[in-house]
Amino acid sequence: MGAVFPNLFLFIRLFFFPFGFTELPEIPETEIPCTSVYEYTGFTLKYNEDLKISDWVAYELTGEEVTTLNAPRSNRFYSDKTIPEKTAEDSDYKYSGYDRGHLAPAADMRFSKDAMKACFCLTNIAPQTPEFNRGIWAELEQEIRKWAIRDGSLLIVTGPAFVSENFNRIGKNSVAVPEFFYKVILDYSLPEKKGIAFIIPNKKTDNTFYSYAVSIDEVEELTGLNFFPWLPENELFLESEIDASLWQK
Question: Active-site positions?
Answer without folding.
Answer: 102
